[in-house]
Amino acid sequence: MSQLLTISGLSAGTDEKPILHGIDLSVGAGETHVLMGPNGAGKSTLGHVIMGDPVYKVTGGTISFDGEDITDKTPDKRSLAGIFLSYQAPVEVPGVPLYSFLRTITQMRPELKTTARKFRERVGEICDQLDMDQGFLTRELNVGFSGGEKKKVEMLQLLLLQPKLAILDETDSGLDVDALSVVSRGIEAYRKECDGALLMITHNTRILEKLDVDRTHVMVKGHLVAEGPASLIDDIDRNGFARFEQASTSQK
Ligand code: ADP
Ligand code: MG
Ligand code: MG
């Protein structure tokens, strides 16, 4: 299968601290991958480095996406190329209503440009799909939103932008049953409507049961220490990360 995302020998960190060490990871178009690992392993850092967050410096290796080397590209170029990252802590933007924000990010994408009326219809459609109250759209972006409401915003963005690759960083953590079902439905619709690829960073094995997982990757201390089929998730669910942590110690 042709690879959508290919990460080769990637090392990265902040100015003070190396965090990722020689990461190799590939995701094919339309595939669902899961990235697991203990807290502090470097999972979020990998997501941010794929997105081009300038906080992190790449010190080795390459990232290519859709046949192009994007290692030195700016985050907005990566976003235009079709990469989407949901942040663990979304920013609050006072004064900007959610609806205007969604309209702006959609208009920035030439292939998604549309009339105001069609856009309104599309947003309405997505709100229905996600069982979301449309009153929500006039509120200021993320200001005072609950954890679950912020996730709904993410799912709205995901379904509007239809990226080729969505990296969802613990987008399902700390959610109540209702919010979790919104996230599940959003992911399902994304998979179905645009056959988008997913890189899910999660500790929640229940949300994964509904997804058809192609590959599971395990990160410990900035190294990818294991890769396997979906059944690896059940193994981790039962046995935790201990055996991988031992493996990573003996690797050094
Ligand atoms: P995970 O998402 O797997 O829990 P992170 O990627 O958030 O792990 O963090 C990996 C390690 O890198 C941690 O030790 C964390 O403190 C450190 N780290 C991540 N981002 C920064 C940063 N911007 N500045 C300093 N240290 C960071
Ligand atoms: Mg974490
Ligand atoms: Mg994290």
Automatic annotation (TrEMBL):
Residues 5-246 form the ABC transporter domain. Gene3D superfamilies: P-loop containing nucleotide triphosphate hydrolases (3.40.50.300). SMART domains: AAA. GO terms for molecular function: ATP binding; ATP hydrolysis activity. It comes from the Bacteria. The keyword ATP-binding applies. Keywords: ATP-binding, Nucleotide-binding. InterPro entries: AAA+_ATPase, ABC_transporter-like_ATP-bd, ABC_transporter-like_CS, FeS-cluster_ATPase_SufC, P-loop_NTPase. PROSITE patterns: ABC_TRANSPORTER_1 (PS00211), ABC_TRANSPORTER_2 (PS50893). Belongs to the ABC transporter superfamily. Ycf16 family. This is Fe-S cluster assembly ATP-binding protein.
